[in-house]
Amino acid sequence: MPEYLVIFAQFHMDFRLPELESLAVLEGVELVYDRASYTDDHPFLIVNLKSDEDAQRLIRRSILIKEVVRLYADEKTFEDLLDVVRDTKEIHGPYQNSSFRFDVRAFGHTLSQEEQVERIELFCFLPCGAVKIKNPDVVFTYIEDYGTVFTRGHYRPEKPFRVLFGVLVAKGDRGLIHTYDLKKRKYLGTTSMDAELSLVMANQALARPGSFILDPFVGTGSFLITCAHYGAFTMGSDIDGRQIRGKGDRNIESNAVQYKLTNRVLDTLVADLAHHPWRQQPFWDAIVCDPPYGVRAGAKKLGRGQKSKVPPGPLEPKKPNGEQRYPQTVPYEMHDVIVDLIDFAGVHLVPGGRLVYWLPTITDEYTPEDIPTHPKFRLIANSAQIFGTWCRRLITMEKLHDEPSDKEAAQGAEALSASPAHAKFRSTYFKEAQGKLEQLKLSE
Amino acid sequence: MLQCHAKSCPQGQSYPLAIRNAELEQLDAEFNADFVTRLMPKLDWAVLRKTAFELGVAELPAEIPTEPTQADLQLIHKVALETRIKEADMVCNGCGHVYPIKDGVPNMLLQDHEI
Ligand SMILES: C[S@@+](CC[C@H](N)C(=O)[O-])C[C@H]1O[C@@H](n2cnc3c(N)ncnc32)[C@H](O)[C@@H]1O
Ligand SMILES: [Zn+2]
């Protein structure tokens, strides 16, 4: 299979390979690469793909990839590179009458206009038509890699340590970040997630036309919007109806109207994940959410404090003093939130469906064993976004099949919660972590 | 898709919830045949049909159309994507629990004595 160069954006590095792999699954593209050749501090990855068309499909939805270039030369020096390009007959025939443009890139260095022109002129042996800056027939890409502070130290080398040449074949879709920019969104809350990560999450969830996606902690509905953008039908629920209803004419529904997604952003309802009304059946293709952690983030569930007695029957909707009566709630421990979420996903996802959720951890204390496991799930990806002392991880899990023996378990929620089966789950870590995280977040 | 989940609700009668005192609303949702086709396998046809009939929205065919015509798709679109229940009570046939829909948002929270 031919070689291609993937050029990533230098953002959210830990999310780039997971996104690439999710896109390969989503588009059914055969993707081969050497994991050891990838580093977070570089924007490049060499992959093997069947064709230019596959490259286009692979990254047409990518948020974290800028471009893919069909790679023709990958050398140590410019001179060697010119020789290789001269000998590559494949690129001498097809472009004789094509308009063209040269993109010159440098990583770890900035090339002046003159330096760029100097490089381009040395490629003048390539048989081509006229230069055209906008929408030419072909874009030749020449890249110089000067390395990073990590690989080269603080001095700036005279010469790049690696040079690459190829033809641009595909572009990612980073423009979407702008389309869904929160600054332009009419209904927002303190919990709204930025467009870039919300879009990456939709890719991790394999959101596509016809998928059904649920956010059980929907808040202001950030993920409903990005998943629906890709054609998914989305629904949400939240224990706090004020989030869903918003203020006046600004709410989840008005956001759906703003982005013309009303035929896919379906209903949202008020419900508690710990006592939820969804029928016990595999229905959702993905569950995508940012769970509430800690009291400040509104982590609560229905329940009674220890002192309060079970009322004998229905209470009046209004208290004697005329105030609206709301059901009582108790704090929802981080550990319980995650166990309930994964158990819920185990029952309600279809086989092959994905659970995509955020998990906060304390940077220094984290070990990979802290990631919850469940016999019905396989871990697909674990990507960290670090905020100094604390960090949030985007976890992507895939539900395996519904084993026949699971059928009994699926019949009653009680049977399930009695065997949450998260073998490596360190509950004490989560109890301690919750307190620390809240302190850290407050102090930052 | 929603069922009653009160602790005391008798097994097997918690679904479907009946809809009472409904006030409907038309939504502005662009017709897209593809979307409707993809929506269909997820619908509980019998419940959708009964509800649409009781609310006077439309009379859907008794069986889910296997090769839906354009008219079928438009009808399903109207029922499932263009009509919304703005205000109503969803009532459980098993235990009589009432879940209110306010402003298009169903409130599925239980009360203190039901958890
Ligand atoms: C971090 S926010 C999610 C924000 C959302 N992603 C957005 O775009 O705005 C967590 C949400 O979970 C809700 N929540 C807290 N406890 C809950 C529970 N027991 N069941 C359902 N939702 C709950 C909170 O009301 C809050 O809106
Ligand atoms: Zn009931």
From TrEMBL, chain A:
Q: Which GO terms describe its cellular component?
A: cytoplasm; tRNA methyltransferase complex
| One Gene Ontology MF term | tRNA binding
Cited PROSITE patterns = N6_MTASE, SAM_MT_TRM11
Q: Which GO terms describe its biological process?
A: methylation; tRNA processing
**Subcellular location(s) of the protein:** Cytoplasm
EC number(s) given by UniProt: 2.1.1.214
Q: What class of enzyme is it?
A: transferase
Instruction: Specify the protein name.
Output: tRNA (guanine(10)-N(2))-methyltransferase
Print the keywords alphabetically: Cytoplasm, Methyltransferase, RNA-binding, S-adenosyl-L-methionine, Transferase, tRNA processing, tRNA-binding
Q: Which SUPFAM superfamilies does this one have?
A: S-adenosyl-L-methionine-dependent methyltransferases (SSF53335)
Residue segments, region Disordered? 300-326
Against InterPro entries, the record matches this protein to: DNA_methylase_N6_adenine_CS, RlmKL-like_Mtase, SAM-dependent_MTases_sf, TRMT11, TRMT11_N
PANTHER family cross-referenced by the UniProt entry: RNA METHYLASE-RELATED (PTHR13370), TRNA (GUANINE(10)-N2)-METHYLTRANSFERASE HOMOLOG (PTHR13370:SF3)
Q: Where is the tRNA (guanine(10)-N(2))-methyltransferase TRMT11 N-terminal domain?
A: 3-174
Q: What is its main location?
A: cytoplasm
| Residue ranges constituting the Ribosomal RNA large subunit methyltransferase K/L-like methyltransferase domain according to the UniProt record | 184-301
Please state which protein family the record places this protein in: Belongs to the class I-like SAM-binding methyltransferase superfamily. TRM11 methyltransferase family.
- Judging by the UniProt lineage, the source's domain of life is Eukaryota
TrEMBL record, chain B:
Q: Name one GO molecular function term.
A: protein heterodimerization activity
Family matches, as InterPro entries: Trm112, Trm112-like
Quote the protein name from its UniProt record: Trm112p-like protein
In its UniProt record, which GO terms are filed under biological process?
rRNA (guanine-N7)-methylation; tRNA methylation
**A UniProt-annotated Pfam family:** Trm112p
Please report which protein family the annotation says this sequence is part of.
Answer: Belongs to the TRM112 family.
Question: Known PANTHER family for this protein?
Answer: MULTIFUNCTIONAL METHYLTRANSFERASE SUBUNIT TRM112-LIKE PROTEIN, UPF0315 PROTEIN-RELATED
Q: Which domain of life is it from?
A: Eukaryota
